[in-house]
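dumping this here before i forget
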Amino acid sequence: MESCAVLPEVISFVEKIRGSHSFPLSGKTTLEKDLRMTGDDAYEFMAAFFDEFSIDPTGFDSTMYFYPEGLDLIGLSFLVRKIAGLPPLTRPVYDITLADLSKAVLTRTWPKLI
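structure:
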């Protein structure tokens, strides 16, 4: 079975959890850029996704895919992290697509995306 065969199920799940959108969802739709999932919302969505489709989340690290919660317009968190001796927050490496989620549904494991 190809990932496109389960894509309608994934889209239905996204719409159930996140509501409808003003644009059509497809395999190329990204979670962070297109659906604006970040931080706690993204973490909760992925936990629900893993549970709904019985997927083993081993290997999934949300910091590789999503920005942390909140918005830092003036760079305050950078300054606080520097003073505290903490490393700066990094950008997510990869924006998950609905096609990626479909692959996970087929294999019941989190795919190596990066």
